[in-house]
Amino acid sequence: MSWFQRLLLVTIFATFVLVVIGGTVRATDSGLGCPDWPQCHGEWIPPAEYHTLIEFSHRTAASIVGVLFLGVTFFTFKTERKRPLVFWLAFTAGLLLVAQIALGGVTVVNELPPEIVAAHLGTAMTFMGVLIVTAAISLMRARGASVPAGALDSPFARLAIVTAGTAFVTLVLGSYISGTDASLACGGWPLCNGSLVPGGDSAEGLHFLHRLVAGLLGIMLLGLIYEGFAERRAMWLMAGSIGAGAVFVAQALIGAANIWTELAAGVVVAHLSLAALLWCMMVAISALAFYIPGNESATDDARERDRRSGKVTGWAR
User: Fold this and answer.
1) pLDDT at position 312 over 60
2) How far apart are CA 182 and CA 32, in angstroms?
3) Model-level pTM?
4) In the chain, fewer beta carbons within 10 Å around the N or the C end?
5) Interhelix angle for 114-142 vs 155-179, to 10°?
């Protein structure tokens, strides 16, 4: 494993820790523990107060991620210039990191507007996703793997990408709901204020939309596991898909616990952490699905089944 790949993996892990700390900041209402930026209470080393220390730990973790990515950038220019895809993915990650830092400052200066908070988290998730794709491609190519012709024709690969996108939407929507104080707009689970399909105000509708998207994500994960078996994918890739399904179930239960515990800080942090983990897993599965095809005959059968389904759908329309 090269230094470029090692630093990529370490940076991905550090970014995940950063997201978890960011969730802790949110769950403990410590977002304005440092009311100014880039300093904290006008100092580089802030006073040892509860909310201030939590927010300052988030900024410290962000600085560590920045330093690690400088190392990634160094090796990107040193060793990856002959690999255009990897090079430009790493370059894009650098632009996202700059945008993430800027959004962090805007979030504090504007006193935590929910739209900017959601964009801040979304940019962090995109940054981490690009790093994961970069690492997957670099590691697979180092092993001599290449993308076979027709890889995108695989129902498993296509569904993995769509599922990853749905996981991203669920995560960002959940952040926005938290910022608009709609997290408890539905006072029960699985019903929303005693109703299967609530009417109510915009907060209740927004919360219910989050549940609907999460439910769609669960259905997609079941479909992904099914397609994986149908195409006879590699055992460890299937294990990742089943693991993603298990993470989803745990996240859904912890989401319900948010309601039952009235947003206990530990539960809120666990919910966000599992959502971020699920996103990371789906990005990795999506990237690796192109390099690790299933059994050829099984994949052809899946494609034929998908083609026939498309014909039926077209006729029905």
Assistant:
1) no
2) 20
3) 0.86
4) C
5) 150
